DNA sequence: AGCCGAATGTTATATCATAACATGCGGGCT
DNA sequence: AGCCCGCATGTTATGATATAACATTCGGCT
């Protein structure tokens, strides 16, 4: 979740580069994978990537997948809504972003019952996607 | 979640040490924090701690908190049930483990709808707990 | 031009996690 | 007993992820 906080200044150059690289990737990318892809465009150090990611996350344009230490561009434009659910295939690495009112509502309810002032949430489901499940179990995306 | 897989051999020495250290701690501990606390009992290297943690997690006796890179002893004895929800105070660092049938059921439903064969789940709510919220906002546990 | 705040560039280092290989110990077998 | 084997353990080294700290540049403003 991580609610969008403030005004929309235009994205800076580095933020744009990082966001576009994420949007173009079929799978979540780690900070160093981003750095590799952006060396040509002038990025040199991890700090540059992490800074851009921080700002993009603060705006809700990028999400961090905690179980992967990786990042995705937000596909929805939810940016202010509640908890998001990620569905992650451990096989092909693809991640889908969902929102669900039952989950969102109940998580807010649980936080309230627990006396927690909710700042952010992370919900990630891991498993094998339908496509990977159909190809002989154990096949990995490189093998196909 | 991360379902418990197999038979119960007795815990090994290192596993016992790690589990007891976690059970005694008021907050989740990282692997290196565990290592520090267990040097006296003979643990020397990160790999020893990570190995014990892996086995304890496989049995459902320990959970990993993905947003903290830290570990907690399981308080419930759920060990085979569905998704668990962690409620984490960013202030005092305490984490509570909950299970909720609405969340559990709906997450399984979402996975099924998405065509995902669910292997494990991670659900973490972050915020400020009631105790920390009452003490002048911004107070941290060291300060009190 | 001179100032200021924000973004950027750069170097170094902290933190988290695993690979790879050696050693030791116990249980079953001959 | 002596051997073998599986498995936990010990140990060293390295990989992967993330941040601290400080110098530099850029753009708007007066
Ligand atoms: Zn999103
Ligand atoms: Zn897949
Ligand atoms: Zn548990
Ligand atoms: Zn608290």
From TrEMBL, chains A, B:
Domain of life: Bacteria
Coiled coil regions in record: none
Any one GO CC term of the record: cytosol
Listed Gene3D superfamilies: 3.30.1490.190, Winged helix-like DNA-binding domain superfamily/Winged helix DNA-binding domain
GO molecular function terms listed in the Swiss-Prot or TrEMBL record: DNA-binding transcription factor activity; transcription cis-regulatory region binding; zinc ion binding
Pfam families on file: FUR
Gene Ontology biological-process annotations: negative regulation of DNA-templated transcription; regulation of secondary metabolite biosynthetic process
The keyword Ubl conjugation is annotated on this UniProt entry: no
Keywords attached to this entry: DNA-binding, Metal-binding, Repressor, Transcription, Transcription regulation, Zinc
UniProt binding sites for Zn(2+): 89, 92, 129, 132
The record's free-text note on cofactor binding: Binds 1 zinc ion per subunit.
Reported cofactor(s): Zn(2+)
Family in the record: Belongs to the Fur family.
Protein name, per record: Fur family zinc uptake transcriptional regulator
Species this protein is from: Roseospira goensis
